[in-house]
Amino acid sequence: MRASAFILLLCAALASATPVPAALKGKRLNLGNPLSIPLTKRGDVPDKRGEATVYTSCVVDNMVAITFDDGPYIYEQDIVNTLNDAGIKGTFFVNGNNWDCIYDQYSSLQNAYWSGHQIGSHTWDHPDLTTLGWDDIESEFYRIEDALHKIIGAQPAFFRPPYGSYNDDVLQIAAEHGMTVILWDLDSGDSVGEPVWYSEQQYDDAVSSHPDNVLALNHETYDTTAYQVLPYAIKVLQDAGYTFGTVADCVGWQEPYQWTTKPGSPDLKFLHLIVVLAVLDTVLGDKMSGSDSETGTPPLSAATTLTPGSPSSDPSPPAKGWDVPLLKPSLPLPVPPPSGSTLPTTAAHVVEALASSLSTHVFAYDDALHFGFGQQALGWSSEGQGAKAQEMQARTGAGLALLGRLGSASGGSTSAAGGTLSAFVTPPGLALMSQTLALLPPPSQAGRLVLQVPAVSTEPSGTLTASLSALGPALAGVPSDSQELAVLLSSTPAETALLAQASYAIAEHAIHIFDHHSSARELTAVPSPQQLVGEGALSLSAVLARLDLEHFDYSGDAEAEHVVVLLNSPLAQALKASIGESKGLGLLVVRVLRPWDELALAAALPSSVKHVHVVDHVQSALDPGVLYGDVLGALVGGANPDHPIVHRYGVLPSELSAYTSRPADLLSALRPTVPSPAKLHLPQPKKLAFYTTPASSLPQTIAHTFLLSNSVSTRLLSSTDAFSHAGGVSLHRLLLHRPSDSGTAQAPVDYLFRLEQPDADFVALAEPALLKSHAVLSSACKGAQVLVIAPWSAEELLASLPPKAHATVEEKQLRLYTFDLRKAAEALAPSKGKQEAQEELDTVLQLIAFLRLYLVGAGGEAAVEKVVRAIYGSSIGGVPLTNACKAVWKSLHEVVLPKHEPEVEVEKEKELKTFEFNTISAATTPVLSRTPVPRVSSWHAAAKLLLFREATLIPSATDPKEQPAALRPETEDGTYLVTCTVNRRLTPTTYDRNVFHLEFDTAGTGLKYALGEALGIHGWNDEQEVLDFCEWYGVDPNQVISVPLPDGSRGARHTRTVFQTLQQVADLFGKPPKSFYAALSPLATERAHSMALRFISSAEGSATFKKLSEVDTLNFADVLRMYPSAHPSIEELVELIGFIKPRHYSIASSQAAVGDRVDLLVVTVDWVTPSGSPRYGQCTRYLAGLKEGQKVTVSIKPSVMKLPPNDLQPIIMAGLGTGAAPFRAFMQHRAWQAAQKIPVGPLIYYFGSRHRSQEYLYGEEIEAYIRDGVISHAGLAFSRDTKKKVYIQHKMQNDGEMLGKMLGGEDKGVFYLCGPTWPVPDVYEALVKSLVEYGGMERKEAEEYLEALKEEERYVLEVY
């Protein structure tokens, strides 16, 4: 049975359960032959049969009544909007179960009623009443009236018989029900299939004859009536001078209703769970009958997805004969349902499962892991399931490891998966792999790469975006017509699963980019994987054909003159829904970006197209985007002079979310050239909103309940705001709609159910404190139910509502309910193991409370118990289900608030916060592994450790040159104690950057260093900050603590006071990793603190962690102050914090020239957080405060900055700011060589800073070197001293001939760059240009030459 028919059948069954009063049964009045009843003519006195009155026209002069039959249907809301916009009222004669079930369209019917439009009766089933007996006619009247009582709280006074057909029985029953019968005198003809022009002609003809009044018949079940005929009719009738009214108005200003009251039980409007109940009745049989059997379907929870061993969502037996490795029980997916069925999970889960099952290795990059993608693959690998998986770091050149793997013998495999490597990386991480993508070897069965790219990243503001702007840089080196790399894009859950399969079935390397911002994370029914593998590699076209997909997806007007082209993404799907069948407008969605198929593009576009509008995801206004060039090249030029005009529009990451939720705004931005789209025709889904803590499983449990039914499509999307509430708050949006509504199924959740839109039919608050802080009630539509899970009385609920929230309840006529979860759970938990039983019960009790509200009127408490019994069995955590249900009934109460009375004088009310999506939902907290811990000691114990330190400080048996243990025993570096002799500021004190020069005396320390090496500074924390922390933390700074040394020290320890440890050893003011938050979580005594720490430490809490770490720049002490209930002991704290790591600075001196001395060039690092708090770099602050004579612990670190082996080789140095440090050492060394009469080659020095007068570092020395000929040529760039900014790359371009000959000639010059990363591309370009223009190379040859110089250590970069 079709899903839509099934829903209507259930609606009929529901209505049949509404009994007709016994007093009306069998009552019959014979009023004669129905064919003898004449119709009332225009202007005649109404004809009466008994007490019934029949009108065939209006009686009020110059009035028009526009009526609509057969609803409520999906177009009713738009019809109401059109009428409201025109300032007129219409009349709707509605059925209970005709084109749709009245309970399925209750919200549009309520809106029509509340907007002042008249609602009349049109029977329940729309039968020809003259063919029915008395009791059946009575039932038709009574059932529709009962539904209207419940939905709008009114008894209609007017009735229209279906087909205009009635007899004496009909009129008598209508009279018994107090109804007036209404017919019509103008029929638009829409119900018999007449075209639009015919319907419009009926109105034109009426206006031409200009009757005294018009009673027009239309049907709201046709889109042409709603969007074309109605606006036309309103205009022509208004132009003719008619006034408009309801039917009650036009027949003599009668009352439209016999009585009105508050709507009855509105809960019948939630039909979809009744569907679930019916399906369970059908599928599970006697398990729904109330049996006490403990057996049945396994318990359903948020974890019931695709994890190994979990049950299928389909209660029927699974199919046999599947031999795809992915679907074997030992691999991440369970044995699937039959082919073509679905799995209740997320598309992201399916992608990971496919990757783990069909690859030899999986590489999960940290940027993807930050957004919760890749964790399962790592988990499966650790359990011995699927492919071996390992974590990787996303950074420049990160993809080179993949190249190495593909090019190695281990890249191949004889397994079923072949030599397929999978990698998970976000779009920004993909951009860092551009070099790898450009150098991929040809794919083969022994070596093929599949990149699964979850499209989600973090904006600078901290919010998440699905922007694909990184694709341009990522694919810069990949030819658009490359046949070795396929780039696929998906934007819906079903499409994501299909293209994930395709990426493993094709012969090419593959990049599959899917929407992880929303659709891939939706909990929904995802298509089961098809058997595309195991048959050898297929061509991309062949795989797409098997999946019924194309390179390009066109929708809209077949004769459109304007076509919008954009990448497949949520924005594309939102535009598709918004454009619909708008005249003159089309949409082309790019599903396959590489290889770019120009022929397929031309075939997909309508021949009528004149303007192509390319909408590109861009990083800035200057970014050309990845799509525009491909489209322009395919359509413009060639032999066709009539090619369409190609326009470009860039969408920034900060704009993407707004355009996705409101695509009409994007179309407006493209106008005036792009025509306006027609009004939205999409059927609107049911919308439920759940506000919970990030760890709550209630919404997932409810979604799984709906997913048991094939007759309703279920989509749950969870989003988290980590910053606006302690511990974070999650908004779960649940959408329910018909499976036949394909347009609704493809449209993004953000488009159908916007965060700020008051659309929710049901709102649940599992975190009641949000009522005081957040505008959660603003998401509810008028008449919605609101469930607050809290132990509150009516008075307590009222006290928790801010005045604005109270006003919202009244304005929207919200129905409030409270549920005391704790009371219900504690009353049920057995005395033994009460806490465990309570936790087990929590989720189920909340589900029961939800169902109790949802199923009132459809079996009530009995129906709830049936549904829960079918899922969980007859016992929950040892508690009989019947007892659990009764406990819920006693703890669930409706709250009626007193009328809101605004105070005349009141303090300005605090604005309620809005929800912002900045974090993907939380996951499990990692467990802290225990290692030897610090311990607080008495002075006696400390004395033992100091006197007998050989027992705890064990020297290395392999290192004869042991460093003094008392110096820095916690570090494995060889350390030296040097003395500060000079600390001199180089920039003026009025300048905003403090750049200073340091000199250290190394005499007697044995410290030796080579040119270009770095000096490690083992800095201390600020003394006063440490003392302030000790006071706040409540610890005695003079207490002694012994600290274990790192692994490999075989139990060695060292001893200091708490103050010394926190100042000199523990990195108290350093940046905490996620593991610190995870370790604090179980130590927190306040639940909110524990949940917040747990959430931040999860993989999916990465956006929160990133903001706290990179934007707020919190340190360990800040976190402890933020969550004071997490208070580890001082010894635990030292263990959690770890040791201060040395900071390394390039040495700015040549030991050959200066002797027992080492120089540094340092700039202080300080900044202000968004909250206004000052921050300082720990080590630069320490160095800036050094006094002459102060001792400093240092170590030496090798560097890539080395002089060439031949002193005659030219040296080209480019330094920015403090990047000049190693080059000062080079210049000192060359000056020393010159003094020793050692022949040397030319030395070229480029230096860049902002102002010569303030930041010409070592300027006097450099000028002296220039005069003495040590520096052969200098290019000094001070960017802010000239009107046009000049940087070192500009100086290098001017010296192109010299550089080209030095680097490309026989002298084998060496180029060094030290400083920030930003000028690297421009410097590289300047060098390539010099080699092309003066080295006699082609560009590609020049680029390859520079790459070769890197291998020869002649192109050396030290950037940060």
From TrEMBL:
Cross-referenced InterPro entries: CysJ-like_FAD-binding, FAD-bd_FR_type, Flavoprot_Pyr_Nucl_cyt_Rdtase, FNR_nucleotide-bd, Glyco_hydro/deAcase_b/a-brl, NADPH_Cyt_P450_Rdtase_alpha, NODB_dom, OxRdtase_FAD/NAD-bd
EC code(s) of this entry: 1.8.1.2
Pathway assigned to this chain's UniProt record: Sulfur metabolism; hydrogen sulfide biosynthesis; hydrogen sulfide from sulfite (NADPH route): step 1/1
Source taxonomy: Eukaryota, Fungi, Dikarya, Basidiomycota, Agaricomycotina
Family matches, as PANTHER family: NITRIC OXIDE SYNTHASE-RELATED, SULFITE REDUCTASE [NADPH] FLAVOPROTEIN COMPONENT
Protein's UniProt name: assimilatory sulfite reductase (NADPH)
A cellular-component GO term for this protein: side of membrane
UniProt GO molecular function: flavin adenine dinucleotide binding; FMN binding; hydrolase activity, acting on carbon-nitrogen (but not peptide) bonds; sulfite reductase (NADPH) activity
